[in-house]
Amino acid sequence: MSQHRRAVSPQVYRRRRTVVFGGLGVVLAALVYLPLTLLAPLPAAAVTVTAPTESSPEATPLALPSYGASAIGAVGFDGLLGQGGTTDAVPMASITKVITAMVVLQSFPLAPGEEGPSVTMTGVDAGYYGEYLAQNGTVSPVRSGMTFTERDLLELVLVKSANNYTKSLMMWAFGSQEAYVEAARAWLASQGLDGIVVLEPTGIDPANVGPAAQLVELGRIALADPTVAEIVASTSVEVPDLGELPNTNKLLGISGVDGIKTGTLDDFGANLLFSADYSVGTTSITLVGVVLGGPDHPTIDADILALLASTVANLSEVEVVTDAEALASYATIWGDEIPAIARDPATLLVWAGTPIDVQVVTEDVVTGVAGEDVGDAVVTSGTRSVTIDLELASDVADPGPWWRLTNPAALF
Question: Which domains can be identified in the chain, with CATH numbers?
Fold first, then answer.
């Protein structure tokens, strides 16, 4: 039996070829389009920062004395908060003994509560009593054979302000006044206190001088030593063979005052290097100041209390960020908008009149989960700052395959 093929016209052949290849094209296009759109990387969300604007309370004048030299600062604040009178170096009197104590402790450090080595007084030490008594200096009884620890001697220096025991401590530690002066000058230079001049350890020589600003810094440095800080805060000390000795600083325990050192020279006046602790809101702060060349100690004590009160009045704790406050917002191209919020509330202790600056730094976000860290806010006022972590308030979810397939222009 013979078979015959029906002839296919050219038009039909072309149509069939078009259908076949067109279908293949669709399949191929789909094979390319689907992976490209479904797997294409998403762009990072656009971020808008909404940093808060904070203002500092208005400053009020400090009650700085009109006489001599005075200055006040605070631990954690650079420089001074206020200064009055002369800026020249003036006699330090017994504030010099703070330097002597710090230089001795540099060579013979004491841990908190430690007594240190024992020192036995000799006939030479007994002679210092008459030497300083003749100069109308503060002294405490001594006799050959008495034994004191290093801490006992530091208490006699910083609490009783005994010139004779100050010289005994100096001679025990350095062997000569010349060696002490060399060590003191080196220590002062290392601390940046180049305006302070020390010629002897007690301050009875009016040529021991310092500018008020650098004496405030000396106070900050001294308080950083726990042994010195504990001793100068003592209203009295019990020293073997000498009994209970009251502190020459009569302001201790009044209005937060807890240090540091008195000084008196007949031809210059009354001095006090002082410190006081306060709570401002939830923040604790230590003020450090000095008044030099006052008419007498009752006068400068009253003026120091007024200065402290006016200083505290210029400090305030500002709530710079509230709990869950939105500081930025992430907007995705598929229409979601997610706030970046403060993880915790934050406060900052500020000095009146000092600008408050808020800087928000965010990270790129494509997708993320609620609570994810996405940056920081740094709030600064003067030299003080606080850093707040930012987190996503809710999820930044992937838009899903349908959005990707229907929005190719957004992906390429």
Answer: 46-56+319-410 (no CATH), 69-313 (3.40.710.10)
b/e per residue 340-378 (b: at least 16 CB within 10 A): bbbbeebbbbbbeebebebebebeebebbeeeeebbbbe
Which tokens go with 331? Answer: 């907007």
Give which of 241, 225, 278 is closest to 98, Cα–Cα. Answer: 225
239 close to 231: Cβ distance less than 8 angstroms: no
Q: Which two tokens stand for residue 235?
A: 């209203």
Residue 211 is encoded by which pair of tokens? 């500018």
- What digits encode the pLDDT tens for the residues 16-30? 555 444 444 444 444
Vertex 275: Cα angle to 216 and 93 (nearest 5): 55
Task: List Cβ<8 Å contacts ≥24 apart for 136-142.
Answer: 136/266, 137/163, 137/164, 137/202, 137/204, 138/94, 138/162, 138/163, 138/248, 139/163, 139/164, 140/164, 140/165, 140/242, 140/245, 141/242, 142/168
pTM over 0.90: no
Between CA 338 and CA 403 the distance in angstroms is 19
Say which residue the tokens 């969300």 belong to: 45
Angle (deg, nearest 10), helices 163-174 and 96-107: 30
pLDDT tens-digit series, residues 319-346: 999 999 999 999 999 999 999 999 999 9
Q: How many CB atoms lie within 10 A of CB 268?
A: 18
3 state SS of 83: strand
Q: Which of 158, 114, 137 has its CA nearest to residue 252?
A: 158
